[in-house]
Amino acid sequence: MNNKAKVNELGNAVTDALREIYDPEIPVNIYDLGLVYDVKISEDYKVYILMTLTSPNCPVAESLPAEVNETVRGIEGVSDVEVEITFDPPWDQSMMTEAARLELGFY
């Protein structure tokens, strides 16, 4: 498998893994909630994740990024993980996928 294909495969694995992590207060995964703003994978298989929380005072402000880091680090082929938290732009309900909004009854 060439390097570009491996990076794409890792990207899919990272997305799948992020969909297994749930905000403990909301019964929707963090990816579909729109908490993940960006995922970049370098040619040497380092993963950079830019994400937010539902609010700056979120009770899982320390544990959720650590869980994301640990989960993604456990994917075979990932060489390193960096998780950055931002509140710019601030999260709001419009960032959720359609499926997440349906799940939470926002339609």
Please give a quick description of this structure.
This protein has 107 residues and is α+β, with helices and mostly antiparallel strands. It has helices at residues 3-18, 30-33, 63-73, 98-103; strands at residues 36-41, 46-51, 80-85.
> What CATH architecture label applies?
2-Layer Sandwich
Tell me the domain tally.
1
Secondary-structure content class = alpha+beta
Global shape: globular
Low-pLDDT residue spans: none
Strand order across the biggest sheet? 1-2-3
- CATH superfamily membership: Fe-S cluster assembly (FSCA)
Give an overview in words.
With 107 residues, the chain is an alpha+beta fold. 35% of the residues lie in helices and 17% in strands. It is built from four helices and three strands; from the N terminus they run ααββαβα. The chain has a three-stranded mixed sheet with strand order 1-2-3. A hairpin with a 4-residue loop joins β1 and β2. It is globular, with a radius of gyration of 14 Å. The model has no long low-confidence stretch (mean pLDDT 93).
